[in-house]
Design goal:
Largest sheet: 4 strands, mixed
Order of helices and strands: HHHHHHHHEEEHEH
Radius of gyration: 18 Å
Strand order of the largest sheet: 2-1-3-4
Length: 220
């Protein structure tokens, strides 16, 4: 099965180039150079990347991300940093051969972080071949429980065309009959799941109390 994440890597590098340094992104506090630095450090510095998932190391990772971004804010430095994003991890790095699972959604979401960061109006979802859409759906289905862990309501993600993933509430004592349906193209569902609900072009349906509970969960 061919990998799909190289398509998203190219799209991310193109979006970063088009936006240029200093452009806002959907990642609070990060301009485009900081987001590019995040991708590069994730793929080249394992100890720094560990801070993405290990809270005690998070402050150090944030400092190093901001530092690399600031040092790459000139046109020349930014172009070099984006070239590193486009090239990807070194041959020795596990992410080089790990396939779509750790990379596809990560790169997709960061591409949208750049595309939508400077836009007040909605940005049209990017068209994609059916096989790429299917790969995004497989990836989202695999991580949905993790992304909505602790949610007080059951979340149903659907593209409205037959694809559906149900994520039961994992909160202790939650009423699992309280259900919110989030519908949209799979890329928009991914943005909602990855805490970009404000930028995701989806419809959210459910009892008002359940919808408020989901909104509150995402606003934490």
């Amino acid at each position: 099965m061919p990998w799909h994440h190289p398509l998203e890597r190219a799209a991310l590098a193109d979006a970063l180039t088009l936006a240029g340094p200093g452009a806002p992104t959907l990642c609070e506090g990060w301009s485009t150079e900081h987001l590019a630095a995040h991708v590069v450090l994730r793929e080249s510095a394992p100890l720094v990347a560990a801070g993405i998932v290990l809270r005690p190391l998070a402050a150090r990772t944030e400092r190093m991300t901001l530092d690399l971004g600031e040092r790459s804010s000139t046109p020349e430095g930014y172009a070099a940093l984006v070239d590193r994003v486009r090239t990807g991890p070194a041959p020795w790095h596990p992410l080089r051969w790990a396939g779509d699972a750790p990379q596809l959604l990560e790169l997709f979401v960061h591409t949208e972080d750049v595309r939508r960061g400077a836009r007040d109006e909605g940005v049209a979802p990017r068209p994609a071949p059916p096989a790429h859409v299917d790969a995004l759906w497989r990836g989202l289905s695999q991580v949905a429980r993790l992304l909505y862990r602790g949610c007080p309501v059951t979340v149903v993600l659907t593209d409205g065309d037959g694809q559906l993933t149900r994520v039961p509430s994992g909160r202790r004592g939650a009423d699992r009959s309280a259900t919110v349906v989030v519908q949209g193209p799979v890329g928009e569902l991914a943005l909602h799941a990855f805490d970009r609900a404000g930028a995701a072009q989806v419809t959210v349906d459910g009892e008002p109390e359940a919808v408020r509970a989901l909104d509150g969960f995402r606003a934490r």
